[in-house]
Every structure is written in structure tokens, then in C-alpha cells.
Specification:
seven-stranded parallel sheet; Rossmann fold; 2 domains; alpha/beta; about 325 residues
């Protein structure tokens, strides 16, 4: 949808804190209109804060059909992320409002985090560093010690479930570590050093299973007790994709029973998670607070793409549109 006037549009950011807690600059977005940034917004505050906005930006704040109806001058919705399930895209499309997301910005950072998690599982670097700080090495009768089996990655099999751009980046790092790489994908491609197999074969063969598939009705809860039972007892599970891919109680039960060697997750089914999440107390489970995407470089790219999305919309050629409007 092309702009209705040449005046500077009002741009409202509903929840800017996660993208920019203070180490980035909103200048590129602010150059495109009259910008107001709210660090966080409660549901009851959304309509009042967005009133008069032609361009509305959100990260995780929900934009419902009711909100869209209550904002008659709204012409563009930008999501400060790749996932866009926080927006009622059908309601926006019915109004001719394009919803634009930001794909591809975090590929390198997420792939890097996969191996940060995997190396923590295989070396327990954080744990052992803490024991040194606690004085244990100084008091040790031997020149070294370790509390967990230390696992060499070279020669092990890395299984990637969902081999898009992030999965491919993970595969290339795995190959650099000397790992054998197998992968599954909806549309298998030819990637040097990667063997494409079924998802079931990944769970049976892999020493490390890393999840990178989209969340759909088919994949929701797909990593359940049945799939985990296919895994080697020495295998690790890594999830930097979407939390609901994993049936969390099933995984916790498997870890506590020693049916797999460990798991590391950057995403959970509910975020922030309730204090009773069963994975918090599961054995050999490492959890980080959804930070795989959040390096400075990754967030700076995201900011640049958001500004580019707005710029393209104002020029009458919207990009990264996820709802067919515009």
C-alpha cells in the first residue's frame, strides 16, 4: 500500500528494549518519520500508545485484530524479528496493511550459539572454571581433574533437523570440527559434506541433534518420548529453534532417567518460563534465556533491515512482506 501523503509518518515502537537496550541507535528509523520508542508495553497500553501511528513496530507485543481495527490510520506493521505470529496477519491483510518481518539477520550468531551450547555440554567449561574459582584446583592432589565425561566432536555425527540458512551454517561449523553431518529438510539441497536423510534417521544415528525447523502443527512437540527413545544414550539434543518443538516433560524425564546424555536449549515453550518448568531441574540440561540471536552485530543488522523495510514501504515497494498485502 503506497503512502497517502508526503508528510512524515508517525512511527511507534511498542517494545524496543530487547532489540536496543541502549547499545544501538534508532537514528536510521527516526530519519523516516516522527519516532516514539516505548521500551515495553502492556496489553492495556497498546491502543493508546499506537493511536495516530501510521507505522507500528513490535517485537513480541501482540497486535490483534481488535488492535488493528482500533487504529484507523495504521498503514504498516513491522516485526522486529523473523517470527511474525504476534501479529494477526489476516486482519492486517484485510485492511491492505503489509506486515513485514526481518529474515536472515541472525544466522551467524545463532549458529555460533549452537556450538557454545554444544561445547558447554562436551567440556563443561563453565562448571570447571567455577570449581577453580572455588579453590578446588589449588587443593587438588593431582595436576588436573574433571567432573563429567569430556567428549571430542571430531568423528561424531551431527544431525540437523531443518537445514535452511541457519542449519547450513551449523553444518559448516560442524564440518570444520571434523564432524560427519546429516540433515533433514522439507526441500533437501546439495550441500558439500552434508548427507540428507529422514528425520527419524537423524534421531537414530546422530551423536548431536540440533533443531532448526519451523514451528508448524506437524513439528509442534515432535521431539517427544518416542523420538527421544530413538536417540543414542550418549547423544545430545540442542534447541535454538522454537521452544514448542520439544515436549519438555518428555525431555526432562529422559534426562533424569539417563536415556540421553544431555540437552542444551536457548528457547522454551513459554517465555519467560514459569518457575516450575521441568527442565530447570533436569539432569545435564543447560538453558540460556533466548540469546542466540542477540549479539550486537546481529541486532545491528536487524535494525538496518527494519529501517530498510520502512524505507521500501514508503517508496511504494514493500519488502519482506509476510501477508501478501501492499
Amino acid at each position: 500500500m503506497s503512502p497517502a501523503s508526503t508528510s512524515r509518518p508517525r512511527i511507534v515502537v511498542l517494545d524496543g528494549h530487547t532489540l536496543n537496550p541502549g547499545d544501538l541507535d534508532w537514528r536510521a528509523v527516526g530519519a523516516l518519520g516522527e519516532l516514539t520508542v516505548h521500551m515495553r508495553s502492556e496489553d492495556t497500553e497498546i491502543i493508546a500508545r499506537a493511536a495516530g501511528a501510521e507505522i507500528l513496530l513490535t517485537n513480541k507485543t501482540q497486535i490483534t485484530a481488535g488492535t488493528i481495527t482500533a487504529l484507523p490510520v495504521l498503514r504498516f506493521i513491522g516485526v522486529l524479528a523473523t517470527g511474525f505470529n504476534v501479529v494477526d496477519t489476516a486482519a492486517a491483510g484485510a485492511r491492505g496493511i503489509p506486515v513485514c518481518n526481518v529474515p536472515g539477520y541472525g544466522t551467524a550468531s545463532v549458529a555460533q550459539h549452537v556450538f557454545a551450547l554444544l561445547l558447554e555440554l562436551t567440556q563443561r567449561t563453565g562448571h570447571h572454571a567455577q570449581t577453580v574459582s572455588d579453590g578446588r584446583w589449588s587443593a587438588c592432589p593431582d595436576f588436573c581433574y574433571w567432573d563429567f565425561p569430556l567428549v571430542e566432536l571430531a568423528g561424531r555425527t551431527l544431525g540437523i533437523v531443518g537445514c535452511g540458512s541457519i542449519g547450513e551454517a551449523v553444518a559448516r561449523i560442524g564440518i570444520a570440527f571434523g564432524m560427519k553431518v546429516i540433515a533433514s529438510a522439507r526441500r533437501p539441497r546439495s550441500i558439500h559434506g552434508v548427507e540428507f536423510v529422514s528425520t527419524e534417521e537423524i534421531f537414530r544415528r546422530a551423536d548431536v541433534v540440533s533443531l532448526h525447523c519451523p514451528l508448524t502443527d506437524e513439528t509442534r512437540g515432535a521431539v517427544n518420548s518416542a523420538r527421544i527413545a530413538m536417540m543414542k544414550p550418549s547423544a545430545f539434543l540442542i534447541n535454538t529453534g522454537r521452544g514448542p518443538l520439544v515436549a519438555e516433560q518428555d525431555l526432562a524425564d529422559a534426562l533424569n532417567a539417563g536415556r540421553i546424555a544431555g540437552a542444551a536449549l536457548d528457547v522454551l515453550s513459554t517465555e519467560p518460563p514459569p518457575v516450575g518448568n521441568p527442565l530447570f531441574t533436569a539432569k545435564n540440561c543447560i538453558i540460556t534465556p533466548h540469546i542466540a540471536w542477540a549479539t550486537h552485530a546481529s541486532r545491528a543488522r536487524l535494525m538496518d533491515i527494519v529501517a530498510g523495510n520502512i524505507r521500501a514501504f514508503l517508496a511504494g515497494t514493500p519488502q519482506n512482506v509476510v501477508n501478501g498485502a501492499g
